[in-house]
């Protein structure tokens, strides 16, 4: 009798520990304070180079943040590494992106996402992913470095644009924004941003037209610059807000997804040379990533500029030569938007893994796809691709239906468990008699109890087995609700306008606690007084524990409890009537 109760308590304790440990390891990295010290120098050159086109080695000791490969100064006049006047920024608007480009360097310095409101109650205020102001620095930079490059440690060029604003017109599928630069000797460079309708992927091309009489040489680089400020999309609800990961990630040949927290960047900067790949900055629900041409070879590196409290994630390509009279395109892609798995997977291998479902991803992924199917009618799982054209249209209803499906999968196991618990409830008086009769002989008491279990065909472990088996599902659903942007600001009914955050009025946790209390009344009372008190208080403890969990997760647990109560009640009454 003591064993199943102990296992139930142990299971709950283990789940609590695992969730807290996941918060600590994956999300609770401290924000770096701003200090005024000299930035550390780079560790030195890498020995991995392409013989035909050696990779330029970034010199990160300079304060401009631009990879400096040495050699001659650029032929284009350079300007200081300071932001341009906000009025001079180039405005670009598509159906899914509101974007600003700074002519100094031609950097993307602001990205707003009109399809994703900042708050559910302010749908006209888009979420701002990238920005460069007094509150926060988070920008995407790119350029050409090397002997004839546009960017050096001494400054960056001012690009020219034909107009100050661009808009993707109705009916157009693509928008090109060209920035031009003239270098000495007749070299013309076009920095072209290409936007597509419905896409968060920006194609960035540096077109070098060598109209001079000498070979032109340079290399493409791209980098993400972000300060150590907090994630603006992080939930602030409750005493214990839902934690989220803020930091870097990159792809490598031996591992498609590598996390790189800010602390690791400070202690051991990344230096990796490989073919293809990507490097990204992650935050809750959104990601920005540089994805260079998969056919090229690049050096990926990170840098912490301590004097500015800034983190740089960059790639630098191989040196390329453009002969006189020829034209060459240096190409990369930049993604800035929501973590939509199908879109990310189509861009580059492993990029979809920035939607991090933790160590139970193999359970969380099917749960996510089934939820999408129930909500929208679209299913893409295990090679099966289908679209019914219609779903329930409500994520909360989809969670309830998912609970029914999971309950059906575990129906037989649960039924066996509830029969065992009902039989234990039935023989409770006999167990109490054995306890009183052999209270001075503990060993004899256990022997007689086991004989009773064998005679009545009772499995003492059966009562806790369904709960233990379903714990991985519970943890996986937690990660799905926490990480899936599709459920961001997803309403249910009445007061629940966002299933991914806590219930603002704690109604669902209270109902869940009440259902747990009712469920304990159907279970046999533990013979041990201490265990009886523990089980008595367990619904209250678990309700408090769930107060700050996503409403969708509590909705799942409440629905599961109600279904379990119904199943257990029917089985218990059936066995009692048989006796």
Automatic annotation (TrEMBL):
One record GO biological process: protein transport
Residue stretches making up the Membrane insertase YidC/Oxa/ALB C-terminal domain: 395-573
Location(s) in or outside the cell: Cell inner membrane; Cell membrane
Molecular function via GO: membrane insertase activity
From which domain of life does this come?
Bacteria
Q: Which InterPro entries does the record associate with it?
A: Membr_insert_YidC, Membr_insert_YidC_N, YidC/ALB3/OXA1/COX18, YidC/Oxa/ALB_C, YidC_ALB_C, YidC_periplasmic_sf
Topological category with respect to the lipid bilayer: Multi-pass membrane protein
Q: Mind telling me which residue stretches traverse the membrane in this protein?
A: 395-415, 460-481, 501-518, 539-558
| Pfam families referenced in this protein's UniProt entry, alphabetically | 60KD_IMP (PF02096), YidC_periplas (PF14849)
Q: What is its main location?
A: membrane
Keyword match Methyltransferase: no
Heme among the record's keywords? no
The protein's UniProt keywords, in alphabetical order, are: Cell membrane, Chaperone, Membrane, Protein transport, Transmembrane, Transmembrane helix, Transport
Which CDD domains does its entry note? 5TM_YidC_Alb3, EcYidC-like_peri
The signal peptide annotation in the UniProt record is none
Describe the location of the Membrane insertase YidC N-terminal domain by residue ranges.
89-369
Gene Ontology CC: plasma membrane
Region: Disordered, residue numbers: 31-88
Assembly description: Interacts with the Sec translocase complex via SecD. Specifically interacts with transmembrane segments of nascent integral membrane proteins during membrane integration.
The UniProt entry's sequence similarity note says:
Belongs to the OXA1/ALB3/YidC family. Type 1 subfamily.
- Its function? Required for the insertion and/or proper folding and/or complex formation of integral membrane proteins into the membrane. Involved in integration of membrane proteins that insert both dependently and independently of the Sec translocase complex, as well as at least some lipoproteins. Aids folding of multispanning membrane proteins.
Please identify the protein, giving its name as recorded. Membrane protein insertase YidC
Naturally occurring in which organism (per UniProt): Alloalcanivorax marinus
């Amino acid at each position: 009798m003591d064993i199943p109760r102990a296992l139930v308590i142990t299971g709950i304790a283990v789940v609590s520990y695992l969730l807290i440990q996941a918060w600590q390891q994956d999300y609770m990295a401290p924000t770096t304070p701003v200090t005024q010290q000299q930035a550390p120098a780079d560790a030195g050159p890498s020995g991995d180079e392409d013989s035909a086109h050696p990779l330029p080695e970034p010199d990160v000791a300079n304060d401009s943040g631009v990879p400096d490969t040495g050699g001659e100064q650029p032929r284009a006049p350079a300007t200081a590494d300071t932001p341009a006047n906000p009025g001079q920024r180039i405005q670009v608007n598509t159906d899914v992106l509101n974007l600003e480009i700074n002519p100094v360097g031609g950097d993307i310095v602001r990205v707003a996402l009109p399809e994703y409101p900042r708050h559910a109650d302010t749908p006209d205020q888009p979420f701002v992913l990238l920005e460069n102001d007094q509150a926060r620095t988070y920008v995407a930079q790119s350029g050409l470095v090397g002997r004839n490059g546009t960017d050096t440690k001494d400054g960056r060029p001012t690009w020219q644009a034909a107009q100050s604003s661009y808009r993707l017109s109705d009916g157009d599928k693509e928008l090109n924004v060209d920035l031009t630069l003239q270098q000495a000797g007749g070299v013309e460079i076009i920095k072209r941003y290409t936007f597509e309708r419905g896409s968060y992927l920006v194609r960035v091309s540096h077109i070098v037209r060598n109209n001079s009489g000498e070979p032109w040489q340079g290399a493409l680089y791209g980098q993400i610059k972000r300060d150590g400020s907090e994630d603006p999309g992080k939930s602030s609800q409750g005493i214990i807000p839902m934690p989220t990961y803020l930091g870097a990630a990159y792809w490598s040949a031996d591992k498609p997804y590598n996390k790189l927290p800010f602390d690791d960047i400070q202690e051991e900067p990344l230096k990796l040379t490989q073919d293809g790949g990507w490097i990204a900055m992650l935050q809750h629900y959104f990601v920005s990533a540089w994805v260079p041409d998969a056919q090229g070879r690049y050096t990926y590196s990170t840098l912490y500029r301590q004097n500015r409290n800034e983190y740089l994630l960059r790639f630098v390509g191989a040196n390329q030569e453009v002969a006189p009279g020829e034209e060459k395109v240096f190409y990369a892609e930049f993604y800035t938007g929501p973590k939509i798995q199908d879109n990310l997977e189509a861009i580059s291998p492993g990029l979809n893994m920035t939607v991090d479902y933790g160590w139970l991803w193999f359970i969380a992924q099917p749960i996510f796809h089934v939820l999408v199917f129930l909500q929208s009618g679209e299913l893409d799982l295990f090679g099966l691709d289908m679209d019914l054209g219609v779903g329930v249209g409500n994520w909360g209803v989809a969670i309830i239906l998912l609970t029914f499906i999971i309950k059906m999968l575990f129906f037989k196991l649960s039924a066996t468990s509830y029969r065992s618990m009902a039989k234990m409830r039935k023989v409770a008086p006999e167990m109490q008699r054995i306890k009183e009769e052999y209270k001075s002989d503990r060993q004899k008491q256990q022997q007689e109890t086991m004989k009773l279990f064998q005679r009545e065909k009772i499995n003492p472990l059966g009562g806790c087995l369904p709960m233990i088996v379903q714990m991985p599902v519970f943890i996986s659903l937690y990660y799905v609700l926490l990480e899936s942007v599709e459920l961001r600001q997803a309403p249910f009914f009445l007061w629940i306008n966002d299933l991914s955050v806590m219930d603002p009025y704690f109604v669902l946790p209270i109902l869940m606690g009440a259902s747990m209390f009712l469920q304990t009344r159907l279970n046999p009372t533990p013979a041990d007084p201490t265990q009886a008190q523990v089980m008595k208080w367990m619904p209250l403890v678990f309700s408090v524990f769930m107060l700050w969990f996503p409403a969708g997760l509590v909705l799942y647990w409440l629905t599961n409890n109600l279904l379990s109560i119904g199943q257990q009640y029917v089985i218990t009454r059936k066995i009692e009537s048989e006796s």
